[in-house]
Amino acid sequence: MKGPLFYSKILLFGEYGIIKDSKGLSIPYNFYNGALKTDINPSEAAIKSNESLKRFVTYLEAINPELVTFDIEALKSDVEAGMYFDSSIPQGYGVGSSGALVAAIYYNYAHNKITVLENLTREKLLTLKSIFSEMESFFHGKSSGLDPLNSYLSIPILINSKDNIEATGIPSQKVDGIGAVFLLDSGIIGETAPMVSIFMENMKQEGFRNMLKNQFIKHTDACVDDFLKGDIKSLFKNTKQLSKVVLNNFKPMIPVQFHELWKKGIETNDYYLKLCGSGGGGYILGFTEDINKAKQALKDYKLEVVYNF
């Protein structure tokens, strides 16, 4: 194995909004991880990952050298020797599978890399973010660079705006708290690129732009503030509003069979659902004031609790 494990991430708030300067809050999720490896008898998955790495190396060779340079020779020879990314992070689930891979490649092969042990000034964070954005664009067509940043640093990141990000602390969990953030498995693999292009297409309409600014971003920003302050009452009020706005305006990003379930949560207050990443499948993020009620209401689905209030 080469280098440490890199973990998945969850963007609690900010999906789509951060493209247009909303706040965002991203946390590492240590349940899933990945690392670069070489095996004598590679599995089918390892061979597939290695093929993808070969294409990625070609892409990295063409990245602007003023932004970042790599030890391409070492990378090429390791990939030729069968190196692959061994990962438990589900792909297309909105928890940063490509982000962890990008972080691992940067950690092992970048020249003059910024390390986690340095004093991480805003300048350094933004530099890392732009390097990662460029690297991860290979997978999605357009990337904010936040997923790899989160995976690389393994600390919560607060996005105040595009040019203002900082490492942050989040309120510690109440182990016995019944309020919870959870992941709901949609059972469908989501594709980021098509979802982002639907969003960009919608952005051409004035009505959609106004909704984004006056409703979506307003509630997203409020949720981030509430979460960091630990104001749970206000957090659930704003999450409910956010869930409504997403259901009314981001329908293509919500798998059809979840539209009713989404609505039911808002009507009963048993849980509120929101997008996890770009949507279209993968995980859906849920917030509940009573995890037992949510589990009962969603008993036909697989839930994973990621944070307790």
TrEMBL record:
Domain named GHMP kinase N-terminal: which ranges? 81-147
Sorted alphabetically, which InterPro entries does this protein's record hold? GHMP_kinase_C_sf (IPR036554), GHMP_kinase_N_dom (IPR006204), HddA/FKP (IPR001174), Ribosomal_Su5_D2-typ_SF (IPR020568), Ribsml_uS5_D2-typ_fold_subgr (IPR014721)
Q: Is Zinc among the key words of this record?
A: no
Keywords attached to this entry? ATP-binding, Kinase, Nucleotide-binding, Transferase
Give the superkingdom in one word: Bacteria
Q: What Pfam family is a match for this entry?
A: GHMP_kinases_N
Mention one GO molecular function. kinase activity
Which named protein is this? Answer: Mevalonate kinase
- The source organism is Mariniflexile fucanivorans
